Amino acid sequence: MLVSLEHQFAFFSNPKCATTSIEKYISKYCEISITSTKLGKHTTPKNFKKLESFLKTECNTPFFKKICTARDPVKKIISWYTYRSRPRLKSKRPKRYLGETDFRSFCRSQMQRCPVSFYYENVANNFLVDFVVPIDHLSRLETFFQNKFSLKHGFSKKNTSNIETPQLNTSQLHEIALSELNNASTEFHKGIEIYTTILDHYNKANHDQIIRISKIF
Asked: What is the per-residue DSSP string for the chain?
């Protein structure tokens, strides 16, 4: 999580959504920079509320633009699985290792949840951020930060993982994941609809700016 008091925005690190390169790009320009997972790198917008209230009062900051990136829910499941199936994770962090977990079972479990809960409250039908930027359109977020901090260089690629496992290749993973959509919960399908709507607006926009969520829904 990164917070700029001067520029009045908070950037939230949605897991497996290209956040590491963004953090590296702007962290030194933000007064609050939490880029360690153990310390709260993936602090959610919902959990930010208490800190936000404190900052507004103590730092005389009336509002924060809340921003996060997002990824297609099915592709995110695949990315999570392949990332946590890395052989070295088995000895380093065995509790998080998924290499011996059946991918189909993993999909079925993950697809019972709301896939956009990082930035959306399903029960309240409420978005927790002002901007959700699909990773397909990171160039818009890059432009946003370049303008904010007068930067000329762009994001670097960091923390990328192979989209395959020793047992399954990319096409096999996608085929299994798509077939498991038949068993997915209503919440999961709603999350796909939400993400698809956001992505469609970005695809159709004839400008290079990030889009406020209130302009989409």
From this structure: -EEETTTTEEEE--TTSSHHHHHHHHGGG-SEE---TTTTTT--TTTTHHHHHHHHHHS-----EEEEEE--HHHHHHHHHHHTT-HHHHHH-GGG--TTS-HHHHHHHHTTS-TTTTTEETTTTEESSSEEEEGGGHHHHHHHHHHHHT--S-PPP-S---S--SS--HHHHHHHHHHGGGG--HHHHHHHHHHHHHHHHHHH-SSSS--BGGGT-
| 26, 145 Cβ separation under 8 angstroms | yes
Nearest to 168, CA basis, from 104, 115, 211: 104
Q: pLDDT by residue (tens digit) across 10-43? A: 999 999 999 988 998 999 899 999 888 777 788 9
* 9-12 and 65-70 strand pairing: parallel
Please report, for the chain, the start and end positions of each structural domain, with discontinuous segments joined by +: 2-215
Q: What is the value of pTM for the model shown? A: 0.91
pLDDT of residue 160: 58
Instruction: Reply yes or no on whether the pLDDT at 95 is more than 60.
Output: yes
Question: Chain centroid to CA 210: how far?
Answer: 15
* Per-residue model confidence as pLDDT tens digits over 180-195: 999 999 999 999 999 9
